[in-house]
Amino acid sequence: EAGASVLLLRACLVLLASPIYLLSFLGVWEPFCRKVFFPFILDKICVVHDKKSKKHKQELFRNLPDFRGPSGDLRLLEIGTGSGSNFQFYPPGCKVTCTDINPNFQESLSRNMKKNQHLHYERFLVAAGEDLRQVPSGSVDAVVCTLVLCSVTSVSSTLREVLRVLRPGGAFYFLEHVAAEHSSWKYFWQQVCYPTWKLVFAGCCLTRELWKNLEEAKFSELKIQHISVALPWMPIEPHIVGYGVK
């Protein structure tokens, strides 16, 4: 019975990760994870993920210039900028507003800003995807979100905010890991890893079916492609990539 195997293997993982569970219980893990562990580990994972997803991102962001506003500028807001690994794909002169709920990526972020001086960096906001109240409604041409919807508290609230800040005709670009096919081994392992993974990786959920949230959001046009981005020993191979137009 799959359910019993999942529970048994989950328990084994909890034992293996028991020091982290203990630190979490004592209230020490969360701040340490946010300040030190997560920025460090994400930096390392991003290097591998960026290599594997580079051609998908080049393809994804190729039509960004088509969404320039009437003034000829492209005003772009990135949710969950992290270390800024998407900057290299944005067109020259693009005006970027960075947001992240975690302000502890400064070092790698400023490194990527220096590397990508073809962009104008407008401002950095410490904000959650669900609450972009510092950004006026209809004020941006494009919103970008990669590997972020897995860990927001509410996907639907985040997408509502995306649609609010976009001007009519603006576009939302995404690349996210998602739940595997339910009958697959990949999905079995996603279920096994789920609780421990979520604790270790700052709230990252392995089994979200994000294409459903995107289909329910009110985009006038939506392009979604299911792809594979294989990372060694990681249960996050199935991805979706695409964009939606307001």
From TrEMBL:
Domain of life: Eukaryota
Domain Methyltransferase type: from-to ranges: 77-174
Stored Gene3D superfamilies: Vaccinia Virus protein VP39
InterPro entries hit by this protein: Methyltransf_11, SAM-dependent_MTases_sf, Thiol_S-MT
Keywords per UniProt: Membrane, Transmembrane, Transmembrane helix
Gene Ontology terms for molecular function: S-adenosylmethionine-dependent methyltransferase activity
Record-annotated membrane-spanning stretches: 7-29
Pfam (any one): Methyltransf_11
SUPFAM superfamilies listed in its UniProt record: S-adenosyl-L-methionine-dependent methyltransferases (SSF53335)
Name listed for the protein in its UniProt record: MET7A protein
Organism expressing this protein natively: Falcunculus frontatus
